[in-house]
Write a structure and sequence with these properties.
The chain has two helices and 13 strands; from the N terminus they run βββββββββββαββα. It is mainly β.
């Protein structure tokens, strides 16, 4: 693994069976929190692509979380929003429920503040400096073959055509 930025790096390996590349981008938080044994440690966002397709995005926490799946997110200076994420089998990572949507937000915002509740501990909060990792994020967009739908202009209304079927 070759570091490409201070807090981020991309690891790419060839799948010997398929001959295709598998890539993972790691982005460490800019602050530490206490891990399960009280030692300071970062949280890490991982974006995984297999064979040129986005596989998943998750945050590896330095804590055991059991089945606490509720997270809070704040993009840039926006409002805090709570979301339910999927838990890992180890209880130490949480998976983004809509990875393409989350990936797009990672590429279009400068900062993410992310909070979760570890098992039998107070809420933990970490921040990610996305602006400094923009080159790596854009490289992963290409490596994962991801295309994003353009945002609807604010204030626009779209008419919904009826299919003629009852509800």
């Amino acid at each position: 693994m070759t570091p490409t930025a201070v807090r981020a790096w991309i690891n790419t390996e060839e799948d010997l069976l398929t001959g295709k590349s598998n890539s993972t981008l790691f982005i460490d938080s800019i602050n530490n929190v206490s891990n399960s044994i009280g030692q300071p440690e970062e949280a890490t966002i991982l974006i995984r692509c297999k064979g040129g397709k986005l596989q998943d995005i998750y945050v590896k926490t330095p804590t055991y979380n059991a089945d606490n799946r509720r997270v809070k997110l704040r993009w840039d200076d926006g409002e805090v929003k709570g979301r339910w994420w999927e838990e890992s089998s180890s209880g130490t990572a949480l998976f983004a429920p809509r990875p393409v949507e989350f990936f797009k937000k990672l590429t279009t915002h400068d900062r993410l503040v992310w909070a979760w509740n570890p098992y039998q501990k107070a809420e933990q909060v970490v921040a990610f400096n996305l602006a400094s990792e923009r080159d790596d994020l854009n490289k992963m967009v290409t490596l994962c073959g991801v295309t994003f739908k353009p945002d609807k202009p604010k204030g626009s209304s779209q008419s919904v055509k009826s299919s003629g079927r009852g509800r």
